[in-house]
Amino acid sequence: MSVERLTFEPGRMSYHWMLATEHVVRYAFAASLCQGRRVLDVACGEGYGSYLLARAGAAAVVGVDLSAEAILAAEARFAAPGVRYLVGDAANLGALLTSEPPFDAVVSYETIEHVSDVDRFLDGIRTVLAPNGVVIISAPNEPGPIGHCSANPFHRRTLTFEQFRTLTERHLGQARRWYFGTPLQGMVITDAGSPLLLNDRADLSLMLDVEQSGAVLVPAQRDFLVAEAGCAFFVGLWGADSDPVIAGSPASLPGLLEPWKALESFRAENARLLREVQAPRDLERPGADMQTRMLADAVADLRRAALLDRARIETAEAALRKAADSEAALRARLEVAEAALLKATDSEGALRAEVARRTVDARALGARLQEIESSHGWRFVQAYARLLARPVAGWPLRQVRRALGRG
Q1: Residue 51 DSSP symbol
Q2: So what's the pLDDT on residue 6?
Q3: In this predicted structure, what is the pLDDT of residue 366?
Q4: pLDDT digits (tens, 9 = 90+) for 233-248
Q5: Is there a contact between 104 and 239 (Cβ–Cβ < 8 Å)?
Q6: Which long-range contacts (CB under 8 A, 24 or more apart) does 57-66 make?
Q7: Same structural domain for residues 269 and 405?
Q8: Is the pLDDT of residue 402 over 90?
Q9: Is 361 exposed, middle or buried (0-12, 13-18, 19+ CB in 10 A)?
């Protein structure tokens, strides 16, 4: 088992295990398909995926993104031998990469919903692809007709699985294979000292702290069957085949069970409310006295109070967790600021020391110059120079200097 750690500046987005695994699993899926190949990573963002493909054995990687800011971040954070980043429109790949040799593999994750012209985007991929090259494209699962408004303001369109398949195959030909990306549930056995179990950070860069290990996949539970309408995203693969790839994140057992316990609590409360609706009818039956009715009302009041207390406790716990996350983020920012201040202080000290040294040197040079100018030898030289400069008295001296070859 090997652990690979990559670090960069904390991002603006908070870390969430599902967001992290969704990003990482896509490039893990592409890694084995890109080994030894020249790869084009379309819509590479800040470049972590291009970097991971290079680390996984790609011969060369070119990352392209429309955002100049993202490309600057990629060059600063994920520069590596064999990796280059370009600013450019995914809908204009043919013109952008006209001087590039064909690519052996093109990777384009969650791009098709963003581009201004889908047809030009897909034709561009075909234009820059080498014969028998590999293409991997994904799209998020947002059911609705093409052009349907997405909840994401940056998405220009939504695609069902059938729409995605029809659109891509119209330009790229029949795909070798289709895949669904979807969340998973499971268990892991890992080292008790693994840093992945005791994370106290909250920035999105955590998704690059990965541990490579073997994995198995068991069938979905009947209540959680994954059909095309229920998965997270679709992946099309041309020119190759690939086995399933798993990316997971450890979770504490109480944290995992919390939503299930909440669901059971809601179900129990719903059953209780149904019983209370039925209770007045039961109390109207012969033999139900006033004391029985009062006891039933008291029990119902106590149950309602307990439910409200539980809701208050859950709200307080959520607020406490949020405050802890905010405190951790502030602590991280404080550490960065303190490091910058310490560096600036060290630089200021070095500059002050250099200024002091040069001041001492200047004073020493001034004292030496004053000493020379006050010496008898200096005064003699000055008098000699003045005599040499006179037209008549200096003429014999100038003749002697010429005779001696001194001009």
Answers
A1: H
A2: 39
A3: 84
A4: 999 999 998 888 888 7
A5: no
A6: 57/31, 58/34, 58/82, 58/105, 59/104, 60/84, 61/34, 62/38, 62/86, 62/97, 62/100, 62/103, 64/40, 64/88, 64/90, 64/93, 64/96, 64/97, 66/90
A7: no
A8: no
A9: exposed
Residue with tokens 């204009």: 92
User: The tokens of 322 are what?
Assistant: 């949020």
Please give the single-letter amino acid code of residue 50.
Answer: S
- On whether residue 364 sits in a domain, the answer given is no
In a domain, 316, yes or no: yes
Is 361 among the domain residues? no
Over the chain, what is the mean pLDDT? 81
Predicted pLDDT of residue 126: 96
Q: How far apart are CA 128 and CA 92, in angstroms?
A: 11
> What is the domain range of residue 384?
375-407
- Greater confidence (196 vs 276) lies with 196
Counting the structural domains of the chain, the total is 3
Q: Confidence band (pLDDT; 50, 70, 90) for 9?
A: very low
What is the per-residue pLDDT for 109? 96
Task: Output the CA angle 265-267-269, nearest 5 degrees.
Answer: 70
| 125 and 234 belong to one structural domain | yes
Measure the CA dihedral 95/100/103/109, to 10°. -50
Using CA atoms, how far apart are residues 236 and 168, in angstroms rounded to an integer?
A: 8
Same domain, 180 and 270: no
Residues 41, 117 within the same domain: yes
Tokens of 401: 């200097």
239: left (phi over 0), alpha (psi -120 to 50) or beta: left
Identify the domain boundary among 214, 234, 250: 250
Q: So what's the pLDDT on residue 121?
A: 96
Domain limit, last residue, from 218, 250, 282: 250
Predicted pLDDT of residue 340: 85
